[in-house]
């Protein structure tokens, strides 16, 4: 007997169109920066890199995970900034806001240690072309791993995990944000990619730094390590891009073999077919590449995964959304 399955009826609620991005083509810059123990130098160095990227035509600049501080549990409390207080309490944050405004670009500001009350977070701030904060993502999945003889790290010794996925509407499209270890959790990327309208006007869900309905691009500032980096870094980026048929951009600090945590480097841009568009080695670099959003529809027409998804057998559930409805 023929199956009664009708994919277009199985989705609840129905998928909406991918939102039309405000630009079709633009240049993104991945600034793979060297990071030192000198915070002032790190800030000035990042400012120069952003300016150079903008001078070369980048409309979106992505910075690395923890670019203003060494990546260590000893350093996080020392270098942390009070983003909500701003001003002198948050010099890295203030620099990014000023740079975005004066250069007229969007900045996905990598991440910095953030202090909020008695808690510390690993936080990415997104700035619009007016320099205003458009979104703030606190790393949701803390990097706690133990591979004996290779790498052991426990971010949870000092950091608290964020509680919300973050998707931001910018002048260069709808961007889902994750920080490093967040890339391992495919559900987060799927949630960002899901073309499901929860609110009739797609407006912000009350009290949450979150908007759902079809990201064009996922940005992951990240500092993978010398053990998992060679095996997983590119694999995960390509998987997130191919599964969700969108762009994925990552940005790492440059490698410093003298530091306690040695970053893998290899900042990369991946297209919606899972193809590596551009990548770099482990030294300092500013990678500038074009993003062409017309490829999103093309690849989704080539491979109509959204129509073929078996919503009658499995569905992605946003548990926060469900619990806010109860
Ligand atoms: N900073 C991080 O989250 C590192 C993640 C990482 O190296 C991994 O293997 O995952």
From TrEMBL:
<dbReference type="Pfam" id="PF00795">
    <property type="entry name" value="CN_hydrolase"/>
</dbReference>
<dbReference type="GO" id="GO:0006107">
    <property type="term" value="P:oxaloacetate metabolic process"/>
</dbReference>
<protein>
    <submittedName>
        <fullName>Omega-amidase, chloroplastic</fullName>
    </submittedName>
</protein>
<dbReference type="InterPro" id="IPR003010">
    <property type="entry name" value="C-N_Hydrolase"/>
</dbReference>
<dbReference type="GO" id="GO:0006528">
    <property type="term" value="P:asparagine metabolic process"/>
</dbReference>
<dbReference type="GO" id="GO:0005739">
    <property type="term" value="C:mitochondrion"/>
</dbReference>
<keyword id="KW-0378">Hydrolase</keyword>
<dbReference type="InterPro" id="IPR045254">
    <property type="entry name" value="Nit1/2_C-N_Hydrolase"/>
</dbReference>
<feature type="domain" description="CN hydrolase">
    <location>
        <begin position="26"/>
        <end position="293"/>
    </location>
</feature>
<dbReference type="GO" id="GO:0006541">
    <property type="term" value="P:glutamine metabolic process"/>
</dbReference>
<dbReference type="GO" id="GO:0050152">
    <property type="term" value="F:omega-amidase activity"/>
</dbReference>
<dbReference type="InterPro" id="IPR036526">
    <property type="entry name" value="C-N_Hydrolase_sf"/>
</dbReference>
